[in-house]
């Protein structure tokens, strides 16, 4: 029996060896091995021998961990043989398959990693190759599925990937949605790229999986993103996706950083969505994308298709067909002009823009080359221009008529009208007659009133943002492009617009205009101020700057209607930026709007004041209203805390103080009506972040104020009240990443702001209220998180080489280490500030104070010192004594600080030398600390041990001593690093022995305190007493 089995195993092994060499022999060897199996069927014993011999022959494959070409060929052959079903021997094939699957299930549950990997690999190959008519018992399939579900959570990524592949054939089974749920759950948690890619490729098309697949288009791995677009193209037809998903998919794919992902997205767009779902009709594809809502996506799609050459323009296609249309149905036609839908208007705009850019590019190429190549480029540019001329309206009058018809068609054609307006920037206005027609049309557009609705009470409600001309920023931009194209002469654009403003402002001056007329006039004024280089451009025009300010802008800011105030405040900001020096009346009005205005007006006033601050500087803005703050050496020590009731009466408050107090006001977090993510807090937070980044541009701002502002921004970032302000969160996260990397001065600012930030965030200290235990625990965790966040900011490397990094490793300390004095811009400064705070904290005996001290000491223990900062190292070594004295109850923390002391001693080039009084005074002065801190760099010098007695101490005496040391709190109150100055110079010639004995004593003291309980300084409300 054994001999026969060995013979069969040898024959099977020979077949496997031949199959490892080439795929070409697999079909022939499959027939050979099947014949060998069929020959053994007649004898029952031989049949059993064949299976045993087969498993014996393939067993070495389960011990081979690597995926080589030969091993992969062997796996494919074994899987193909197991899944092969011969109609003549169907029963034999099914029986062998079941036996082999059971064998593989045992291997899949093995502790040996290569065995699990090969088992899952072969199972997945068998399942993928298995024909539909294969008969396997339901019980066995259940076992296979359960085993593969378990392997999906295996710790080996390759095992997980093959388990997912094995289950992928069953995800379409309607009776079992557990596999799909498992895939979706695993996809969110999976860290391996190949496993995520396999899951994405295995997900079935459904509403439940579409969200996960669309989310995978943002995966960090290029291969996963590419797989997501492959699945979307093959499994999700265009009509099965929502409009939002369609636009998200195209927006991400066409702008992806990887060229292979962009190509896959473009392939999906062309071959599946455009060719199959829309029959090659680009306008029909645009209807699936809702271009009125997602205009930028529609533009990106058409530009990509035009550049790829997918779209071919037919001869009869042109916007002129809408002009020459003879409609039988008069509802869709006006004066023989057919109305154009939004998709067609966007299509023709992008096509004309593409042809114009191509013509310009070819013309530039022709100008930079010579000979035949230049002639070819010039010919191509001429062809593009000819095609553009055929598409555009033949005359300016036709263009004007086309736009007017769509304007008169109502608000439903506003999008189409805006697209058509942009055609005007491509027309030629060199002819006087054409320019006259276009000028009259531009004048009509500028005088066109705002769109509005009337509510049930008869009140007018403006349609749009209420700031831009026409209520839409894009509409205003389209009019601006057309106006500048028509009035291209020097000063002509300003003259035309100011004449229209003068006409519109006449009712406002006479106080006969309603709020709609005010808003229209101010919106046009804002458009003008945004697009002129300076106020000198308005000199000699219909309305000059002084008249514009006093007759329109300032009265508008004092108007009774809030929307008029908001638009006027924006115009005041634009006017102030264009001035060489801000006007006092303008600044006073903006300050008044910031103090007394409604929420939407205060938001706009905040933006305006920040703009004036960053453009002119705070000193110029304050001088405009008669405030001239002069401090010795230009050093203002702090920001003034202002009572909200005094803001209206006190005009001596500087702009910086005013804005800083705006961050402290309770109503600054209210969100305005115009933007759901804008508040005074978010505007001021973003503004102060810009001010700190550009602090070198504002020499009038004292360097002492930067830490105060930074401290406020950190509080704002970790504050619960600003959690919903996503724009502010994003802005500050970018700011905190770049601020410390710009200069060492910024890092000094972070170091200075560290302790004030901790004081303000920690509950129950320095006058800050506590609260319930749950609230206190949450606030403490938030404070610790902010502290570690600021430490990480200090660790960010500088962009510029303002200072050289240490070239010596910490292990190579010698006399060649150069001492630097840059500790105040590094983590060393924070560590010394923490030690000073621990020594001087007035609330050490309260529960909140004790937890505060413990948290600070833990943070200090995690700080690493640079070998070059020798003065800081010596200072910290001395201050550690006081820190350890303050936290003797927390033995684990004491151990950490002792380890820190050992590290510092090893970094100290001259550990026996201390800091002189002048050095310590200079060091503390550089950090802005008091100079009366006690610095003691002495180490523990235990008394000389008595001669050891020859009598062995009894176990009972040793036990009693241990019990006393663990229960007596007073005995434990002795610090591990005593601060006794009298012991400083005892036995100085035996320093090495002293240090060794100190370490032994410290270790014994720490081990004897293992039975003492303590509570966390972060999560507990009461300190262990």
In brief:
Helices cover 62% and strands 1% of the residues. The protein is built from 44 helices and four strands.
Give the topology, please.
Layout: H1 2-19, H2 26-39, H3 44-62, H4 69-83, H5 90-108, H6 113-129, H7 138-151, H8 157-167, H9 178-189, H10 193-202, H11 207-215, H12 222-235, H13 243-254, H14 259-277, H15 282-289, H16 295-308, H17 320-323, E1 333-334, E2 337-338, H18 342-368, H19 371-391, H20 396-407, H21 414-421, H22 432-447, E3 452-454, E4 460-462, H23 473-486, H24 492-509, H25 515-530, H26 545-557, H27 562-578, H28 584-596, H29 599-616, H30 618-624, H31 655-664, H32 680-693, H33 705-717, H34 726-742, H35 744-761, H36 773-795, H37 827-840, H38 847-861, H39 870-886, H40 891-907, H41 917-927, H42 955-967, H43 969-972, H44 991-1007
Antiparallel strand pairs: 1-2, 3-4
């Amino acid at each position: 029996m054994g001999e026969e089995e060995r013979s069969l195993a040898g024959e099977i092994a020979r077949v496997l060896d031949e199959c490892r060499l080439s795929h070409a022999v697999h079909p022939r060897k499959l027939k050979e091995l099947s014949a060998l199996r069929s020959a053994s069927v007649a004898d029952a014993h031989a049949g059993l021998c064949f299976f045993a011999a087969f498993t014996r022959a393939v067993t070495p494959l389960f011990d081979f961990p690597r995926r080589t070409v030969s091993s992969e060929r062997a796996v494919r052959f074994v899987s193909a043989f197991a899944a092969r079903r011969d109609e003549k021997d169907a029963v034999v094939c099914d029986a062998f398959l079941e036996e082999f699957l059971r064998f593989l299930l045992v291997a899949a549950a093995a502790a040996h990693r290569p065995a699990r990997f090969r088992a899952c690999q072969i199972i997945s190959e068998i399942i993928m190759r298995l024909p539909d008519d294969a008969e396997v018992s339901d019980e066995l399939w259940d076992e296979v599925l359960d085993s593969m579900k378990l392997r999906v959570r295996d710790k080996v990524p390759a095992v997980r990937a093959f388990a997912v592949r094995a289950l992928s054939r069953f995800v379409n089974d309607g009776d079992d949605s557990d596999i799909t749920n498992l895939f979706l759950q695993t996809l969110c948690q999976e860290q391996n790229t190949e496993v995520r890619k396999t899951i994405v490729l295995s997900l079935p098309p459904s509403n439940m999986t579409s969200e996960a697949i669309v989310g995978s288009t943002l995966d960090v791995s290029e291969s996963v993103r590419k797989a997501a677009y492959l699945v979307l193209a093959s499994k999700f037809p265009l009509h099965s996706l929502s409009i939002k998903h369609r636009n998200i998919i195209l927006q991400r794919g066409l702008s992806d950083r990887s060229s292979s992902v962009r190509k896959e997205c473009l392939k999906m767009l062309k071959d599946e969505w455009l060719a199959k779902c829309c029959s090659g009709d680009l306008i029909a594809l645009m209807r699936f994308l809702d271009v009125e809502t997602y205009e930028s996506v529609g533009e990106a799609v058409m530009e990509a298709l035009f550049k790829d050459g997918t779209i071919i323009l037919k001869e009869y296609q042109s916007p002129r067909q809408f002009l020459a249309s003879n409609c039988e149905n008069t509802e869709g036609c006006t004066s023989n002009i057919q109305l154009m839908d939004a998709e067609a208007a966007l299509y023709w705009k992008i096509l004309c823009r593409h042809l114009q850019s191509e013509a310009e590019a070819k013309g530039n190429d022709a100008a930079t080359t010579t000979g035949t190549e230049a002639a070819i480029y010039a010919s191509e540019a001429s062809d593009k221009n000819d095609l553009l001329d055929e598409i555009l309206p033949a005359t300016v009058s036709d263009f004007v008529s086309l736009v007017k018809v769509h304007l008169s068609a109502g608000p439903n054609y506003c999008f189409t009208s805006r697209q058509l307006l942009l055609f005007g920037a491509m027309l030629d206005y060199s002819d006087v007659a054409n320019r006259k027609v276009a000028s009259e049309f531009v004048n009509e557009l500028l005088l066109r009133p705002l769109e509005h609705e009337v509510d049930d009470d008869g009140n007018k409600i403006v349609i749009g943002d209420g700031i831009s001309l026409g209520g839409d920023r894009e509409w205003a931009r389209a009019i601006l492009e057309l106006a500048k194209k028509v009035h291209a002469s020097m000063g002509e654009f300003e003259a035309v617009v100011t004449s229209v403003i003068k006409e519109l402002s006449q009712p406002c001056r006479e106080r006969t205009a309603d709020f709609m007329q005010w808003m229209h006039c101010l919106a046009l004024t804002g458009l003008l101020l945004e697009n002129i280089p300076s106020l000198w451009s308005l000199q000699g025009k219909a309305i000059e700057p002084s008249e514009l300010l006093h007759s329109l802008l300032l009265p508008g800011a004092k108007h009774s209607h809030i929307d008029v105030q908001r638009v006027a405040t924006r115009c005041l900001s634009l006017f102030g930026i264009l001035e060489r020096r801000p006007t006092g009346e303008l600044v006073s009005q903006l300050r008044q709007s910031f103090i007394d205005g409604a929420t939407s007006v205060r938001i706009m006033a905040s933006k305006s004041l920040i703009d004036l601050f960053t453009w002119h500087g705070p000193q110029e803005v304050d001088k405009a209203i008669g405030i001239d703050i002069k401090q010795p050496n230009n050093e203002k020590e702090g920001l003034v805390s202002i009572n909200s009731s005094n803001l209206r009466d006190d005009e001596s408050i500087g702009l910086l103080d005013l804005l800083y107090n705006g961050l402290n006001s309770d109503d600054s977090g209210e969100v305005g009506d115009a933007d759901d993510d804008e508040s005074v807090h978010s505007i001021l937070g973003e503004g102060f972040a810009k001010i700190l980044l550009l602090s070198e541009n504002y020499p009038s701002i004292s360097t002492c104020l930067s830490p105060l502002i930074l401290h406020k921004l950190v509080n704002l970032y970790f504050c619960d009240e600003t959690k919903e302000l996503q724009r502010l969160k994003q802005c500050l996260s970018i700011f905190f990443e770049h601020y410390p990397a710009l200069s060492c001065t910024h890092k000094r600012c972070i170091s200075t702001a560290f302790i004030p930030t901790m004081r303000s965030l920690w509950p129950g200290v320095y006058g800050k209220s506590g609260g319930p235990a749950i609230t206190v625990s949450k606030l403490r965790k938030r404070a610790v998180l902010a502290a570690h966040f600021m430490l990480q900011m200090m660790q960010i490397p500088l962009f510029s080489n303002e200072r050289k990094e240490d070239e010596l490793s910490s292990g190579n300390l010698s006399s060649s280490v150069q001492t630097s004095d840059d500790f105040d811009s590094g983590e060393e400064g924070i560590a010394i500030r923490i030690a000073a705070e621990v020594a001087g904290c007035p609330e050490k005996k309260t529960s909140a104070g004790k937890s505060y001290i413990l948290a600070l000491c833990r943070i200090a223990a995690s700080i690493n010192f640079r070998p070059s900062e020798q003065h800081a190292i010596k200072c910290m070594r001395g201050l550690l004594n006081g820190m350890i004295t303050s936290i003797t109850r927390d033995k684990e923390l004491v151990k950490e600080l002792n380890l820190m002391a050992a590290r510092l001693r090893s970094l100290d080039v001259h550990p026996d030398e201390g800091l002189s009084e002048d050095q310590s005074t200079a060091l503390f002065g550089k950090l802005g600390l008091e100079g009366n801190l006690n610095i003691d760099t002495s180490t523990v010098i235990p008394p000389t041990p008595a001669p050891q007695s020859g009598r062995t101490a009894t176990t009972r005496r040793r036990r009693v001593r241990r019990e006393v040391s663990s229960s007596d709190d007073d005995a434990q109150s002795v610090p591990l690093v005593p601060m006794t100055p009298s012991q400083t110079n005892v036995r100085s010639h035996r320093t090495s022995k002293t240090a060794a004995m100190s370490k032994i004593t410290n270790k014994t003291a720490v081990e004897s305190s293992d039975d003492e309980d303590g509570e966390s300084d972060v999560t507990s409300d009461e300190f262990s007493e």
